[in-house]
Structures are given as structure tokens and as C-alpha cells.
Amino acid sequence: MIEPFQKAIPLLNRIERAGFEAYFVGGSVRDYLLNKPIEDVDIATSAEPEEIKSIFSKTVDVGIEHGTVLVLFEGESYEVTTFRSEGKYEDFRRPKQVTFIRSLREDLQRRDFTMNAIAMTKEGKLIDPFFGQADLDHQIIRTVGNPEERFREDALRMMRAIRFVSQLAFRLEKHTERAIQKNGHLLEHIAVERKLAEFKKLLNGKNRAEALNLLVRLQLYRFLPGLNNFAQQIEQVAQYVNHTDLRGEDIWILLGITSKLDNLNPLLKEWKLSNKEIKMIRTVYEAYEERRRRKEWTKELIFRFGPEFCIRAEQIYCAAHGEKNSESAEKLHQIYASLPIKNRSELAVTGNDLMGWHSRSGGPWIKETLEKIERAVINGEVENDKASIKGWLDS
Ligand code: ATP
Ligand code: MG
Fold first, then answer.
1. Predicted pLDDT at 114
2. pLDDT score recorded for residue 353
3. Among 89, 123, 302, 389, which residue's beta carbon has the most beta carbons within 10 A?
4. In this predicted structure, what is the pLDDT of residue 244?
5. What residue stretches are annotated with the CCA-adding enzyme C-terminal domain (predicted)?
6. What is the DSSP code (8-state) at residue 114?
7. Domain boundary among 165, 191, 224
8. CA distance 147 to 187
């Protein structure tokens, strides 16, 4: 067994010694069977949260109402979730209350897709009542049970299906696909935060072009924040992102470009991105706009935005304009490295120097003059030392 599972075996042993069952489940088992790297090992158990807390000395209640306890064990942390059935669903969302059960099979049955409903014992034996392995082999995304019912229980599963298309490049099983096409409107009942988490994963998947096209073809886009009028634009973005290694975050900018939004703020706010994320995306967008207007990366732009944001903006520019010969990242880094100053605070003169030289009191002229000096220094028109700058100003 591979390392992340191996490391967790003593934890499973402890739960079993206390008289309960415990298995590896969910995304980690799926990714292991696909030979993909595994991030978090999830554990399902017949023990109830309080029982888990009495077995382990260090635990954190991360989602105890859903049966999840975080166990800190030998330097790692593990989400340990009690077998549960989700009982009655309200309003097409996850139920507020869950029922803890002692049956693994029932727990697997409440999971979304067959590939996510496989359990593995600590000996590596698979428990796969819904034939998830066969679907993994055939690269098919299929709900556990009737897709209509499962999407009505929790409409987010439709978004999850498409993000798995993006991440895994699998196909949707026919009935699963039809049920999505029919039930997209149920997404309106889902909290934006949950949709955003899946959408971010979708934007970062290797098959995101196909996934974006599916959002349109299956009509889900109509029920996503701020995108309901943008079918063509989303398809355009899908074309742009084909074969690029753009960051997922930067695809928001392509959405802004194709939809002719001067201001991305309302869209990003509607999706509830954090202020930090919004600020970063806006800055890259500004860098892109400057690049587009000036047709090249000037020293001043590289100084203003820094090389990383310029590289991102350049990739966006090339994606949106079908340009293959982008300005190379090395070149932008080189130009940045050759700049005489990286920051305004490195200028050799200050406002006080200017006031002294000109025997004038403060005012807007200081800021203007400093900006003029900064430009000249960046462009190599004057050396960044006091005497040279004074001479240059006087000439
Ligand atoms: P990732 O690798 O992105 O974490 P994952 O499959 O592990 O993918 P999680 O959101 O971490 O996704 O969920 C863990 C498991 O919980 C899933 O594999 C699935 O079995 C189950 N699950 C998650 N969300 C739902 C849902 N909305 N409905 C039913 N089961 C779900
Ligand atoms: Mg997971």
C-alpha cells in the first residue's frame, strides 16, 4: 500500500481495537486506483463522533454535525467521518441533520458517484457494491442510484459531475448526463460558496475546455452567478483555454474579456470570491489591459506590476488573441532584473530633497516631479543618484 494509506494504518487499528469498523473512502481511494497523487486520506467509520473523540487524545470538531472529526495522529491530520445516511433532503440541498448508522454499505450508497463510493480496508481489499472500479476503468461518471433522485437530493452533485469531467477527463454516463440537462435549475437552491468550490476545481482541471462547453451544452451556466447570459462567451473562453497552462484564477479574466466587462468586480463579488482574490485578479486584469493598449511590455509596466503578474497577463493576452509567440517569461524576468530600482522607495531623492533644491514648499508638484524622476530612472535616462538627478532636473 502506498505511503499516505500506510501511515494511517495504525489509526485504523486503534479504531478497530475499540470495537468499530474503519475504512479508507472517497477521493483518496479513487485517486489511488487511478494512480494519481493523493492529498488527504479520508476515513469512514462505524464509530460515532463522541466515540472517536474518546479513542484519540487530539481531535478537532470540524464538522461534527455531519459526523466528521479531525484526528491529529502521528504528525498528520485525518478526517474521520461516521457512516451516515442523509435522511430527508430539504430544498434540494444537503440535509441539516444526518443519521449515523453502523453499515458501510449504506454510507457508500449516500455518496455521489460510483467512483467515489469505493471503500478500502487497511489490507487493501476493495469494497465496491456499486461497481465503481468498472466505471473507473471505463472512465465514466455515474451517480450511485437514480440520477434524477440524487440530483434532486443535492443539486451540487451536478456541478461536481462537471468538475470531475474537468479533472479526470471522464465522460458522463448517459442517464447521469440527461438528468443534469433536465435539472440544472435546481442549482439555484445551492449556496454560492459550495458552487464556487467546485467551479474553482473545474477551472483548474486539465480538461476544463470540455467542462466549460458542457456547462453550456447541459444548460447549467444559466443557473450560475452572473453567467446566465453568457453562453457564447463561455464557449469562447473554452476555446481560449484549450492547450494553455493558464491558472484557473486567470480564466475569470477571460470571462471578463469575452463578456466585455470593464469591471470584473460585480461578477467576482457575486461568486463571493475573497477580497484578496478579487484584488489579485483585478491587478492581473489591469496589467492585461495595459499590455493590450501599448502592444508591448515597457519597463514602466514591468516595474509597476512586477514580472509574475506581467507573465500571467501575457499568457492571457496570447490566449485571447490567438498569439503563439508570447513574450517569454525569462525575458520579462530579465528586464525586471535589469531595472535600476524595483520600488519607488529606492529612488535616490525624496520630496525633502526637491523642496530644498527648489526652495519651495510642499504640494502636488512634488508627487508629479517624483513620478517624472521615477520614469526617467526606470528608462535609464538618468542614473539613480542625487547629483545626476539634480543635474538632469536642472538641464
Ligand atoms: P477531491 O479529490 O477534490 O477532494 P473528493 O471526491 O474527495 O474529491 P470531497 O468533496 O472531498 O471530494 O468529498 C469526499 C467524498 O464525499 C466524495 O468522494 C464522495 O464520496 C462524498 N461526497 C462529497 N460531496 C458529496 C455530495 N454532494 N453528495 C454525495 N456525496 C458526496
Ligand atoms: Mg476529498
1. 98
2. 95
3. 302
4. 85
5. 249-392
6. G
7. 224
8. 15
Q: Which atom of ligand 1 is nearest to the CA of 31?
A: 2
Number of compact structural domains in the chain: 4
For ligand 1, the distance from its centroid to the CA atom of residue 73, given in whole angstroms, is 22
Which of 109, 131, 153 is a domain's end point?
Answer: 131
| Amino acid 80: pLDDT | 97
Alpha helices in 81-219 (DSSP H): 104-109, 132-138, 147-153, 156-168, 174-183, 192-204, 208-217
- Extract the residue ranges of the chain whose pLDDT is less than 50: none
Domain encompassing residue 330? 226-339
pLDDT of residue 95: 66
At 124 the pLDDT is: 96
Q: What is the pLDDT of residue 274?
A: 98
Q: In angstroms, what is the span from residue 117 Cα to ligand 1's centroid?
A: 9
What is the per-residue pLDDT for 94? 67
Rounded to two decimals, the pTM is 0.92
The CA-to-CA distance between both ends of the chain, in Å, stands at 75
Residues 50 and 176 in one domain: no
Beta bridge mates, 85? 99
Same domain for 5 and 46, yes or no, is yes
For ligand 1, atom 10, name the residue with the nearest CA: 27
CA 385 to ligand 1 centroid distance, Å: 60
ipTM over 0.85: yes
CATH of the domain at 195: 1.10.110.30
**Binding residue numbers for Mg(2+):** 40, 42
pLDDT at res. 265: 95
Q: What CA–CA distances, in Å, run from 284 to 31, 41, 323, 334?
A: 33, 35, 18, 20
Give ∠ CA 383-389-393 in degrees, rounded to 5: 135
DSSP letters, 198-252, are HHHHHHHSTTHHHHHHHHHHTTGGGGSTT-TT-HHHHHHHHHHHTT----GGGHH
Tell me which residues have their CB closer than 6 angstroms to ligand 1. 26-27, 42, 111-112, 116-117, 154, 156-157, 201
pLDDT at 209: 97
